[in-house]
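Hi V.,

Quick status before I head out on leave. The structure for the redesign project is tokenized and pasted below; the design run finished overnight.
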């Protein structure tokens, strides 16, 4: 059970650019914003406004006869006993958080026979519900890390209400109790790594001048057991205008340490690895868009997100995986020479990677189709062998047993229930372990693949799930979704809630693979970033137009839905082409792109979008910022905006201010703010079910009725 603040910051939203944050030029005076008071997260006036908005929204949507049916169905799906949740890798089995009807916040449990067994026996480790009741907190388990190789002592991360900021406390899994004299860190956005049972590395808020503009730490210190935080010894300091600095402890499958240091995240996508040597810090010789991902067969593995000219004769392309002889790299990390493990072809992208005791397992997107391979190192070469999964399925890596060669995969598609597969890299045996029961009737739907042509001529693939008996020219109520940011791909997924609450009603669902995402590797992302971000919005609009051109749907029956960066995507869609849509669901959205860098972790997103404090970059942000594009004289498709007071990643003011602006314009809208939940806008399964019921009730009212 390992959670990384760096992973949260980089993968979920990304971090800020390498440039210092210059002051906004004096001549670029800001247009007065009458709703700045809504930026006070816990301001009495702002909270009173949010409660009043919630009352209005709940009064309408919960009075719809479909709401309670949708809620009960969503809750039954979320609480299904045979669902396949996320599990984490452990040396002695699998660990996971399990939530159900009686364990709303969840119970952390583990099994020692969960890799190849369809019915593992679970051992309870920690009840989050009991802990919350005892301590009178709305605890959400965010993750943690256990000290290898025994993995008895764990640093558990607890969030109050779902925030990214966490409390970290040491827990003994054998005694099933917090360690009385253990490590106990107060709330903050922080990253920790074990060095040994009495030593940890910590990046956190150490006081004034130790946090970046995005609200992340850039100072790493070493803390000994029973030592107060004020006595922690500083071991590395990044730059104040970096994204953040995280701890770095490199271990092999046996738990042995091979390097200790820090990861200096310079920007959203650039970082430096720094090793702590006896003579001081050593910067590893890697390009800035590279990641050290593990050790296999005594080889250090690195992924590249940019082209790298190591010398005049040695070049590596973006999207590749490289490996170093571990002994050579440890002896001289500045001069060690890598070799290629994997190099992508056109329309290829690395999707997932895990390291076993003796091998490397990859999942790769080949023109959007999932494939899996085992890579074995033998006599100086890496040899790839395909793993024979069913075709036309999304294959993702779920967990690995680090001291063996056992791997779990999750296999899914839009209409086939999710299954879990066990693969033994040593014997090459693959078997399906378990599958979920069907959560909706998929027999009446079919999946089709199409391409839309974007404004600049680029072909944009998308998937359509529609009723088999749909007749051309009879518009289908359709929800269109996308993301298109931070090199994160959107892939096929069996979603019971979408199936039961939307598809079973005779409706259609569309997923668009937009530029800015990671479906086709780093270049697909770079094509719509910063000054060219408008391409993401163009791609989304092109898919909407293509659906209408093919007479699959019509503007009256077409809605858009997305969260976070996807919420921004929806905001740009309805402000640039409101004529194409009749519904819009914006979940925890970014919307005010002229002030985003000042809100919550907003400075974290400069690497993706640009910096509104720089005149040129402000120009391209201003050209599409949805909040400012809500203007008189236009009719918008009555959006539904959802956010969370506890979201410390994307500030709730984005949604609040957009709703207030729509109200001032006399435009209809729905707004709901969950006072818990963090960036997921739901702290537990019941809150999640409520959110789903509200969204699909709204969509049905707008697109079906």
């Amino acid at each position: 059970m390992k959670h990384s603040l760096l992973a949260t910051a980089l993968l979920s939203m990304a971090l800020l650019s390498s440039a210092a944050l210059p002051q906004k030029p004096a001549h670029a005076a800001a247009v007065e914003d009458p709703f700045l008071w809504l930026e006070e997260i816990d301001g009495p006036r702002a909270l009173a406004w949010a409660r009043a908005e919630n009352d209005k929204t709940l009064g309408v949507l919960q009075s719809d006869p479909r709401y309670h049916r949708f809620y009960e169905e969503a809750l039954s799906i979320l609480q299904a006993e045979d669902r396949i949740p996320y599990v984490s890798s452990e040396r002695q089995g699998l660990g996971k958080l399990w939530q159900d009807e009686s364990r709303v916040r969840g119970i952390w449990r583990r099994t020692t026979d969960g890799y190849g067994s369809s019915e593992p026996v679970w051992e309870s480790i920690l009840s989050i519900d009991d802990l919350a009741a005892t301590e009178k907190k709305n605890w959400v388990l965010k993750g943690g890390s256990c000290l290898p190789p025994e993995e008895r002592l764990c640093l558990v991360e607890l969030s109050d209400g779902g925030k990214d900021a966490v409390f970290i406390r040491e827990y003994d899994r054998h005694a099933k109790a917090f360690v009385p004299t253990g490590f106990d860190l107060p709330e903050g956005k922080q990253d920790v790594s074990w060095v040994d049972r009495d030593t940890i590395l910590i990046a956190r808020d150490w006081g004034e001048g130790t946090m970046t503009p995005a609200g992340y730490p850039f100072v790493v210190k070493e803390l000994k057991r029973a030592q107060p935080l004020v006595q922690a010894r500083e071991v590395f300091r990044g730059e104040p205008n970096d994204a953040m600095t995280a701890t770095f402890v490199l271990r092999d499958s046996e738990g042995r340490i091979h390097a200790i240091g820090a990861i200096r995240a310079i920007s959203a996508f650039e970082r430096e690895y720094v090793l702590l040597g006896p003579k001081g810090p050593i910067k590893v010789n890697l390009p800035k868009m590279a990641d050290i991902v593990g050790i296999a067969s005594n080889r250090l593995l690195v992924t590249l997100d940019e082209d790298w000219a190591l010398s005049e004769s040695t070049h590596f392309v973006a999207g590749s995986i490289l490996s170093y002889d571990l002994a050579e790299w440890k002896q001289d990390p500045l001069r060690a020479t890598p070799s290629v493990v994997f190099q992508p072809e056109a329309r290829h992208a690395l999707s997932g990677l895990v390291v076993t005791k003796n091998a490397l397992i990859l999942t790769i997107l080949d023109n959007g189709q999932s494939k899996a391979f085992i890579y074995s190192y033998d006599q100086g070469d890496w040899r790839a062998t395909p793993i024979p999964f069913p075709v036309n399925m999304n294959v993702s890596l779920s967990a690995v047993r680090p001291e063996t060669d056992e791997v779990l995969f999750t296999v899914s598609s839009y209409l086939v229930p999710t299954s879990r597969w066990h693969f033994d890299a040593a014997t090459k045996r693959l078997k399906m372990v378990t599958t979920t029961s069907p959560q909706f009737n998929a027999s009446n739907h079919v999946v089709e693949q199409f391409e839309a042509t974007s404004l600049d001529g680029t072909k944009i693939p998308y998937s359509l799930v529609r009723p088999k008996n749909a007749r051309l020219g009879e518009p289908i109520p359709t929800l269109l979704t996308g993301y298109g940011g931070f090199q994160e791909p959107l892939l096929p997924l069996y979603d019971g809630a979408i199936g039961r609450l939307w598809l079973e009603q005779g409706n259609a669902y569309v997923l668009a693979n937009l530029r800015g995402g990671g479906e086709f590797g780093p270049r697909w992302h770079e094509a719509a970033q910063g000054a060219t971000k408008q391409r993401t919005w163009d791609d989304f609009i092109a898919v909407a137009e293509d659906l209408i051109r093919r007479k699959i749907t019509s503007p009256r029956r077409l809605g858009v839905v997305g969260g976070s960066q996807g919420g921004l995507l929806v905001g740009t869609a309805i402000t640039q082409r409101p004529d194409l849509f009749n519904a819009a669901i914006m979940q925890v959205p970014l919307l005010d792109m002229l002030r985003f860098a000042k809100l919550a972790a907003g400075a974290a997103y400069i690497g993706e979008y640009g910096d509104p404090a720089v005149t040129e970059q402000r120009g391209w942000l201003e050209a599409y910022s949805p909040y400012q594009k809500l203007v008189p004289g236009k009719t918008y498709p009555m959006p539904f905006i959802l956010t969370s007071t506890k979201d410390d990643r994307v500030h709730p003011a984005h949604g609040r201010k957009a709703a207030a602006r729509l109200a001032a314009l006399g435009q209809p809208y729905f707004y709901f703010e969950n006072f818990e939940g963090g960036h997921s806008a739901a702290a537990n399964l019941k809150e999640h079910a409520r959110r789903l019921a509200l969204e699909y009730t709204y969509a049905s009212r707008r697109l079906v009725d």
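Above is the designed sequence. The first strand starts at residue 88 and ends at 90.

G. will cover questions while I'm gone.

Best,
W.
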